[in-house]
Amino acid sequence: MNLNYAFTLHAVSVQENFDSSLLQRFHYSPSRTSTKLFLNDKSGLHNPLPSLNNFGLQGKKKMDKNLHPYRYIINEPHKCKEKNPFLVFLIASTGKEKQLREAIRKTWGNEVIVSGVCIVRLFMLGISNQAKTKSLFKESKLYHDIIQQNFLDTYKNLTLKTMMGMNWVSTYCPNASYVMKTDSDMFVNTEHLIKRFLKPSLPAKRNYFTGFILKNHVPHRDKNSKWYVPPNIYPHTRYPSFCSGTGYLFSTDLAAKIFSAYLKTTYLFLEDVFVGICLKRKGIEIVQPPKAYLFNNHMVRFTPCRYYNLITSHGMNPDLLMNVWHKLQKTKHSCIEEDTYS
Questions:
Q1: Which long-range contacts (CB under 8 A, 24 or more apart) does 318-325 make?
Q2: CB proximity list for 183: less than 8 A, separation 6 or greater
Q3: Count of domains in the chain?
Q4: Cα separation values, 115 from 125, 195, 245, 264, 332, Å
């Protein structure tokens, strides 16, 4: 059975009769070149690619146009049909994080949390040994909020996961106003983000990108480092400014531009850095948030009114997220809005 072909259901495309044994090995044939992928490989480096050279990993040769050979195992092509979402959440997740996904659906990822505002929630996954495939398909049929492609769900492939999301937005939801890419271990103050920060009554911005900005970071050249990047992959002494992958916000028009840049840019596994490189390639300037405390790539010490006035905080687990959320809902009406955006 070829993973390239998915059985189509109402509002969700999945491999209905998917055999979980296929996750042990499958073939993918880009340009009629078959490459075996073994999921028991621990390196996380084996992907169904025609060659690493063609993927641009030699530093000199750029990726050929449309060389993104991955295909959807689970898709939601009709998620935005006949509606114009104000905000799309792209949430990086893994198969083993079901409890986190459930907590997000009940809290900040609730698609009807802001009255009169259309929100779309999507969890982005690759394939992994931890994922119970049939269980994931059932979850997808129940909630219609999962997209998954046939790349390995590893740290080195986080960039692929985000690019899958960028391409999904530009293909299936181009009429949305804004997109927020974030992670499953995050707290997001959705009401603040929409009502006070973005303000649906205002015209949607274009070429807009913001978040927790990181500047003047240098590539790690120590081969023992988790973040090691050799000079032939990235020869420059500093990375361009980028936003932490824990949570960045952008206007929907940038999704297609970022994906287009990805297809012509040497692949880098550091997802947030890579997005920054794509933005620079397209001449997009990252916008500084109006308040420094809004976006955070660390866990902010909780008090209800502190969380009422920020947008993101890192380091959540399911129980903590539910606890923080319920405490915030009980006391938020007594908090003073610290922000005044122009």
A1: 318/99, 318/100, 318/102, 318/103, 321/100, 321/103, 321/104, 321/107, 321/187, 322/103, 322/106, 322/107, 324/187, 325/106, 325/107, 325/108, 325/187
A2: 91, 92, 245, 246, 247, 314
A3: 1
A4: 29, 10, 28, 41, 17
pLDDT digits (tens, 9 = 90+) for 249-280: 999 999 999 999 999 999 999 999 999 999 99
What is the SS3 assignment for 190? Answer: helix
- Asked, for residue 315, whether it belongs to a domain, the answer is no
Domain coverage including residue 150? 7-203+247-253
Using the Cα atoms of residue 218, residue 58, residue 26 and residue 260 in order, give the sign of their dihedral.
Answer: positive
For range 157-163, the mean pLDDT: 97
pLDDT of residue 57: 34
323 in a domain, yes or no? Answer: no
**Token couple for 216:** 């003047």
- Both tokens of 187, joined, read 């707290």
Residue 199 included in any domain: yes
**CB-based contact 149:72 (threshold 8 Å):** yes
Distance of CA 95 to the CA centre of its chain: 15
Residue 75's beta-bridge partner residues?
13
- Give the integer Cα–Cα distance in Å for 34 and 3: 13
Average pLDDT over residues 63-86: 85
Instruction: With a cut of 80, say whether residue 36 has pLDDT above it.
Output: no
Q: What is the pLDDT of residues 45-54, one digit of tens each?
A: 334 333 333 3
CA 104-109-115 angle, 5° bins: 140
Alpha carbon distance 328, 253 (integer Å): 33
* 64 band by pLDDT with thresholds 50, 70 and 90: very low
